[in-house]
TrEMBL record:
Name this polypeptide is given: Glycosyl transferases group 1
Species the sequence originates in: Lentibacter algarum
GO molecular function: glycosyltransferase activity
Keyword hit for Ribonucleoprotein: no
InterPro entries (UniProt xref): Glyco_trans_1
Record flagged with keyword Transferase: yes
Keywords noted in UniProt: Transferase
Pfam families in the record: Glycos_transf_1
PANTHER family: PUTATIVE-RELATED
All copies of domain Glycosyl transferase family, residue ranges: 874-994
Length: 1075
């Protein structure tokens, strides 16, 4: 409904008069559907606090206007009068979390919702703060009159103003309460005049891009919460239009540094924390850009062109703005009068502003003009790590001096008095946490008249020294992460105990009170390598003397680039924190010195001794000196950064080098090989997004760690590859020239990448993405790299989950076109909550057979014992894997400890939580009391892991839930009789004919056991499992029968080739549908 119209809406299908409205009982609410940070403490939630505060402000006015007292509508689970919020979420089968709230924010209220809300709101008059479209639609359907109040986007005014929407009354009749448009324009004029007195030093013909707080209702789109990273193409277009784009983060935004890092890929983006209205008033700024920020509404009042990067922005520049008078009884009586008269009654309007100092800003105590969490002001100098900055006349470092304590700079230093001396600078966005500021000072002091010099930041003393002479003193000050803003701004305060005049110390006429002189500053990294950030381009001309980056094999850098010197040239790089994806290093505009003497040259690029790329230069082709250069992309695997020092050595080896003089080309006698203009470090994921679509699919996941997800990544790759190489006549036919799958490494876990034996060096990409894991991993990629990998592609999530219903946050389909579950169990769980195509494709089982099987003795297994095996990761939680039940079943099956039988537990503990570590410790202590139990906790090689399965006699898993159950499938594939709980994903390949299924009971989960879930899972029966164990041990014929049947099932239906054909057939269907 258009609430700005003068038409009076008749609620409950009949006309409500002013007196009827005033007879209703007012109820004050906020967006009561917004989730609680801690569900057990509903009363402390933000929305409840807003509701109580709004009621406190309005209560006197509402008491004069309505016959009944106003009450508050709160989300308080279990409270007698709490709103039924949890029940509403349940009626939609979504969780009451942030993802669920976003999902329902613009939804249509269902019948259950209306019936749940009816007893709470029937006969009520709703006064709401920022009601959601969902709530407004519910009140419309229930015939409940409401007024929703929201902060107006025009925030440059002296005080915040309000917007109003309602499903009754005549908004035009409230015009006398609204701020005249002429006054708004005049206020903007005064703001511009205010900032003209101290204009900003900005580049001309620029734009400014404003960030927003992350959980902003203005960012809720049709598919969820949008972000700056979703609009990288729009940002790129903005950067292409302007020479400079300033990025101003939201002061209360938690992801400012993340946004700064992703924007660093654009070389003309500069970061600023200036007052937003100083930026709007700056004549150099032509366009104001944002996703949906209120600043877009404000921009025209400052003569700027607004550019919304998102099409969901709503322009409120013409929307009426109401002042604090909205809290008065006169306003509410006039609102009710407008129902009867259609116009404002003859009331005297209150004029609160001249009568009180109270403002909405002071009541809310929120203003985005402050620095918010970023208390450090704007810096004018961005430092280069490991490069000294001189202080003095004409030196760049003098721009870093802030405060009145500094004196007029001298040629090579600047004196400071005892107070108000600050040093301000900005670190690169990628700067490591372990930086040191090397500060060189001298004192106006003697041994008898010393000066104590302290350096402070954010209230902490970072370092101090006692100056006793005029000689040079070096201070090494640690720059803690807490002393930097999100954009890397640092403010150091120099605090001195005394100041002396030169006349007093040395004689002469200078009577200024001086404490110390600042001479040089250098910000140093502890690592002897170039610390880069993803998206950074390093110009070769700027590398002169940088031996950290170029330790040997290089001539001095020139304006056009840098030449290699000799046959081997080394680059040394690092980055912090550890990247979660591979890095692509591009050697930019490379050209080789070729001549008749050396008509061909070959470059081999090695990373830590492993050759990764070879390029051949020939005369007459691009890449020859005098012709256009070539860009050479080199993959830097994440594994290379996982060493203790994190330093990666990149060797550039050329077959030959010679001098121009030797070749008769010039008098230059230097030995030259290649010249390189620049070095660019980028995410391999962003790089793949730019490449041609030559592969059948991009498989994106962790390929080089030892976890179940990594096995899934490698096996899925092998499955598609084997299906495409299948020589059988019934193979899936794909378009000619389409290459096999493209592996893209992404590991956002704490597991360090290792050499998994998986090598993938393809250079192109695909128009179909298969993301391994869950949808949250896709969101993490977008936050780091933007959405370029998703655009114009078909995006599939190939995922796992272990319970019968996906949590809402895992059912978020914002970035996904299709979902593949690892089992029918997972697919069924996904279908309940996903509104996209869902398929079940099993995890391919790739069985490894080592050339030499590791003997039992290596694992401590007696040669004459019958060995049961269970392998599990404590990271997957002890409760779900349930090794205690396997131990119970084993001890019940074999109470006689003299029987030749052992129970082998192979476990892994890497990222497990503290409670799981404690649970494992207790389990281990109990298990080892039985001498027949063998515990293996070390990480095994692939050969050893396969050998362990082959050396054992049977396998058991008494899990409470499994998404697929890979270890059981592998055991069956190796021909081992397998026992498993008869529940969840393993039922895709286990049945009564090929395995032993254990009886179970469905039980309610303890919410603290598994990711906060409170659903049902299986409680396997240890006695039934014990019977199966006893039978497998005693009945050779039965044992061999189910072992053969199990092996046949895995080979025929779950091998890499069998599953690969199914995956390939689906990809073919997708391609044909998209053609």
């Amino acid at each position: 409904m258009n609430v700005s119209t003068a038409i009076i809406r008749a609620v409950n299908a009949h006309y409500l008069s002013s007196s009827q409205l005033s007879a209703l009982k007012p109820i004050v609410v906020a967006d009561f559907m917004r989730p609680l940070p801690i569900q057990a403490q509903a009363g402390s939630a933000m929305q409840n606090r807003i509701t109580r505060q709004l009621l406190n402000w309005l209560e006197p006015a509402l008491a004069e206007t309505f016959a009944a007292c106003a009450t508050a509508g709160l989300w308080e689970d279990g409270a007698p009068h709490g709103l039924p919020v949890a029940e509403i979420y349940e009626s939609y089968d979504v969780d009451s979390d942030a993802v669920g709230w976003i999902q329902l924010y613009r939804a249509e209220p269902n019948y259950q919702t209306l019936e749940l809300l009816r007893p709470y709101f029937e006969g009520r008059f709703v006064i709401g703060f920022e009601l959601s479209p969902f709530q407004k639609a519910a009140f419309d359907a229930l015939g409940v009159p409401y007024v929703s109040i929201a902060i107006h986007p025009l925030r440059f005014l002296h005080d915040y103003k309000f917007m109003i929407s309602s499903n009754f009354g005549n908004m035009q009749a409230l015009q006398p309460f609204a701020l005249p448009r002429e006054q708004i324009g005049f206020a903007a004029q005064l703001r511009r005049a205010q900032f003209r007195e101290a204009p900003l030093e900005l580049r001309s013909e620029a734009a400014v891009l404003f960030g927003q707080v992350e959980i902003d209702t203005a960012l809720i789109g049709a598919r969820g919460l949008i972000s700056l990273q979703d609009h990288i193409t729009e940002v790129s277009n903005l950067c292409a239009r302007f020479d400079t784009v300033y990025f101003k983060p939201h002061p209360y935004g938690a992801h400012s540094q993340e946004q700064a890092l992703i924007l660093s890929q654009f070389e003309n983006v500069k970061f600023t924390t200036h007052n937003p209205y100083a930026l709007l008033a700056a004549p150099q700024i032509e366009t104001v850009a944002a996703l949906t920020s209120s600043v877009l509404t404000e921009a025209p009042f400052f003569g700027k062109t607004p550019q919304a990067l998102s099409n969901i922005w709503q322009d409120h520049s013409e929307t009426a703005a109401y002042g604090i008078e909205l809290l008065s009884a006169a306003f509410w009586k006039a609102l009710l009068d407008s129902v009867e008269t259609g116009k404002m009654s003859e009331r005297i309007l209150p004029t609160a502003a001249p009568m009180t100092d109270v403002t909405v800003k002071s009541l809310l105590n929120v203003s985005w003009e402050t620095h918010g969490a970023q208390t450090i002001p704007e810096s004018g100098v961005e430092v280069v790590l490991n490069k000294g900055i001189e202080i003095g006349v004409g030196h760049e470092g003098t721009k870093m001096l802030r405060g009145s304590g500094w004196k007029v700079p001298s040629r090579d230093h600047c004196w400071a008095g005892p107070q108000d001396a600050f040093l301000s600078f900005r670190l690169p966005p990628h700067a490591a946490p372990d930086l040191t500021a090397k500060i060189i000072v001298s004192g106006m002091a003697t041994k008898d008249h010393p000066v104590l010099l302290q350096i402070h930041s954010e209230g902490q003393i970072l370092g101090e020294t006692v100056l006793e002479t005029s000689g040079l003193v070096v201070l090494n000050i640690p720059l803690k992460p807490s002393s930097r803003s999100a954009l890397g701004d640092v403010l150091l305060e120099f605090v001195c105990s005394h100041a002396h005049s030169p006349k007093f110390i040395n004689g002469g006429s200078d009577q200024r009170a001086l404490a110390f002189a600042l001479r040089r500053v250098e910000i140093m990294s502890s690592k002897a390598a170039l610390s880069f950030y993803i998206g950074e381009t390093v110009q070769a001309r700027d590398t002169r003397g940088n031996t950290r980056f170029m330790p040997y094999g290089w001539h001095d850098a020139e304006e056009e680039g840098v030449w290699t010197n000799g046959r081997r040239s080394r680059l040394r790089v690092t980055t912090d924190p550890l990247p979660d994806r591979d890095i692509e290093l591009t050697l930019g505009n490379v050209r080789a010195l070729l001549s008749e003497m050396v008509p061909v040259n070959v470059l081999v690029v090695s990373v830590d001794g492993v050759a990764y790329h070879t390029h051949k230069f020939r005369r007459g082709e691009p890449g020859e000196m005098g012709r256009s250069g070539v860009d050479i992309a080199v993959s830097l695997p994440r594994e290379a950064f996982c060493k203790p020092d994190g330093i990666v050595n990149i060797d550039l080896d050329v077959v030959a080098c010679h001098s121009p003089a030797m070749a008769g080309l010039s008098s230059d006698a230097r030995e030259l090989g290649l010249t390189i203009q620049h070095f660019r470090f980028d995410s391999a994921i962003r790089s793949v997004a730019r490449k041609p679509s030559a592969h059948v699919a991009n498989i994106i996941g962790p390929f080089n760690i030892h976890t179940g997800l990594s096995v899934m990544a490698r096996n899925s790759f092998l499955a598609l590859k084997s299906a495409m190489n299948d020589p059988a006549a019934d193979r899936v036919q794909l378009p000619a020239g389409l290459l096999g799958p493209r592996a893209v490494n992404f590991n956002n876990s704490n597991h360090l990448d290792e050499n998994s034996g998986f090598v993938q060096q393809d250079q192109d990409g695909s128009d179909i993405n298969i993301f391994l894991g869950d949808v949250t991993r896709i969101a993490q990629i977008v936050r780091k790299d933007g959405n370029t990998i998703l655009r114009n592609r078909y995006n599939i999530c190939y995922g796992a989950w272990e319970l019968e219903t996906l949590p809402t946050y895992l059912a978020n389909t914002r970035y996904v076109d299709e979902y593949w579950g690892l089992s029918n169990f997972i697919a069924d769980a996904a279908r309940k909550r996903m509104n996209i195509p869902v398929y079940a494709f099993p995890l391919p089982v790739d069985l490894h057979y080592p050339d030499t099987v590791t003997p039992r003795a290596r694992f401590g297994i007696p040669e004459d014992a019958f060995a049961f095996l269970f392998t599990f990761s404590v990271d997957s939680t002890m409760a779900r894997k349930n090794p205690e039940a396997a131990l119970d079943a084993f001890q019940a099956a074999f109470p006689d400890r003299s029987a030749p039988v052992v129970m082998v537990f192979k476990s892994m503990v890497r990222q497990a939580s503290a409670p799981n570590r404690e649970a494992f410790k207790a389990f281990k202590a109990r298990a080892l009391k039985d001498p027949r139990v063998i515990m293996i906790e070390e990480t095994l090689s692939r050969d050893e892991n396969a050998s362990l399965y082959m050396r054992c006699d049977a396998y058991i898993s008494l899990h409470r839930a499994e998404g697929f159950g890979l270890t059981m499938a592998e055991a069956m594939g190796y021909g081992k009789p397998t026992i498993g709980t008869g529940y969840s994903g393993n039922l895709d390949f286990m049945n009564a004919e090929n395995s032993c299924l254990v009886k179970y009971a469905k039980v309610k989960m303890d919410p603290g056991l598994y990711h906060g879930q409170q659903r049902e899972w299986a409680e396997p029966d240890p006695d039934d499992a014990a019977c199966h164990m006893r039978r497998i041990f005693e009945d050779l014929r039965f044992r061999e029968q189910i072992a053969r049947a199990g092996k046949r099932t895995i080979y025929q239906e779950f091998s890499t080739l069998a599953v690969g054909k199914k995956l390939l057939a689906r990809l073919k269907d997708i391609r044909e549908a998209r053609a």
